[in-house]
Amino acid sequence: MSYCAIDFGTSNSAVAVPAAGATRLIELEPGQPTMPTAVFYFAEHEALPPGAEPPRAFGRAAVAAYVDGYDGRLMRSMKSILGSTLVEQTTDVGGGHAVKYLDVITGYLRHLKSLAEASLGEPIARAVLGRPVFFVDDDAQRDAQAQASLASAARAVGFEELAFQYEPIAAAFDYERQARREELVLVADIGGGTSDFSLVRVGPDRLSRLERKDDILANHGVHIAGTDFDRRVELASLLRELGYKSHGPSHHGQAPREVPNGVYFDLATWHLINTVYHPQRVAELKRMLAFYGNPAHHRRLMTVVTERLGHDLAARAEAAKIAVAAGADTTIDLGHVEPGLAVPLDEHTAVQAIEADIEKIVAAALDTARQAGVAPERVDALYFTGGSTGLRLLTERLARAFGQARAVRGDRFASVATGLGLHASRLFA
User: Fold this and answer.
1) Between these two residues, 97 and 305, which has the higher pLDDT value?
2) Which pairs with CB-CB distance under 8 Å and at least 24 residues apart come from 259-263?
3) Which residues of 319-352 are buried (b: 16+ CB within 10 A; e: fewer)?
């Protein structure tokens, strides 16, 4: 019975398998050891037998199918559903089909497992799965339910023996391979859905130990990360051109009221975007023209809703955030919403939008050290992993909070999977 390790991420996923006494990351897509955590359900297809699932694309192919305009439903950020009431609910995927959100996760895990088995050339029945420190903040029961749901999906695809490991702990195992002496390392694993921190004692003498409980001094995290940054940026920039934070006309000398904002929050949240397209919701939004002082805002909003452009806007906001994070101002083209419409985004606007989130993330990092009884200046190294550590402002703020620590960057998208593979090899080999 062979094994694998799966980093099922909010934004990207990776898989490690055994290789010549060690582990290696498999190629999930041509030339790529990581793959976007995305599924596209095609609405147009031949008649299906009873119980069959509609055809799907995964990863970059899923995103490409959506961008190319195929009729169907794109699902991203599925991990954020774990621990919520949505996990057992069904959702329309087009073509007269509806699936449970948990079944979407199950299908994605089945795809990862099949790729791992094809790479190894043999069945896989054992797996280590990564998990955030907290699937759900401040709710132990829902957090436990989230792990149970993920375990249920993993067993449904044929994993008979399962183990879980905290994602930042896995990243610490990856960092430990380069440690030349005993160190205290604070792992900052900041991905799409969570910002997780672990203070871990590492060193070459500890590398081969299976039981590392005493070396894990503290775990902490917050459910704030890249998708929250994207949401804030979208609300602060392009959704304002659709009426967010705008006001209606003045009536009878009273001060104008702000337009209802629920639709904008839903448009900025990946797994809620499709709720805006329900016929009853669309009809309700059409009747709200009188709420808007600027009719252009309502007209643009209705274009987005009726043409189902919500996911496209979210993707443009994410791309703009990445461009600004790299140090360049950018412009978000919205010509497909209204000819000539474009929204500039500079670093100052982006920073203002996410400042409160960054403060909470830095506070969580400091709380991790505090829980371990370790002063920030005693931390030897900060190990950055996760896609959102590409945000320069965030990593600089964390580095200042731990001024004596050496900042080390791991592979933003593969460090956790590599560490999970190391743990799996010690556990199963």
Assistant:
1) 305
2) 259/288, 259/291, 259/292, 259/297, 260/288, 260/291, 263/301, 263/305
3) ebbbbbbeeeebebebeebeeebebebeeebbee
Mean pLDDT across the stretch 361-383?
A: 97
Q: What is the pTM of this model?
A: 0.79
CA–CA distance, 246 with 235 (Å, rounded to integer): 12
Phi, psi of 364 (to 5 degrees): -65, -40
Mean pLDDT value across residues 126-140 = 89
- Which residue from 72, 75, 60, 76 is spatially nearest to 27, judged by alpha carbons? 60
d(CA 133, CA 68): 37
Reported as a pLDDT band with limits 50, 70 and 90, residue 150 is very high
Rounded to whole angstroms, the Cα distance separating 143 from 152 reads 14
**Dist CA 392 CA 375 (whole Å):** 24
Q: Is residue 13 within 8 Å of 27, Cβ to Cβ? A: no
The answer to whether the CB of 169 falls within 8 A of the CB of 419 is yes
- Tell the residue number behind the tokens 């209606």, with chain if given: 248
Quote the CA–CA distance of 342 and 333 in Å, as a whole number: 5
Q: Look up residue 417 and give its two tokens.
A: 């999977």
Q: Write down all domains in the chain, each with its CATH number in brackets.
A: 2-167+418-428 (3.30.420.40)
CA angle 236, 242, 244 (to 5 degrees): 50
Query: Is pLDDT above 90 for 351?
Result: no
Evaluated on CA atoms 154, 156, 158, 160, the torsion sign reads positive
Cβ atoms of 126 and 135 within 8 Å: the answer is: no
Q: Would you list the DSSP string of 179-219?
A: -SS-EEEEEEEE-SS-EEEEEEEE-TTTTT-S--GGGEEEE
Strands 161-166 and 124-131: parallel
CA distance 345 to 327: 11
- Cα 195 to Cα 331: distance, rounded to the nearest angstrom: 28
Q: Minimal CA–CA distance to 324: which of 267, 390, 262? A: 390
DSSP per position, 230-282: HHHHHHHTGGGGGTTT-B----TTPPPPBPP-HHHHHHTSGGGGGGGGSHHHH
Q: CA-to-CA distance for 108 and 43, rounded, in angstroms?
A: 18
For tokens 């474009």, the residue is: 342
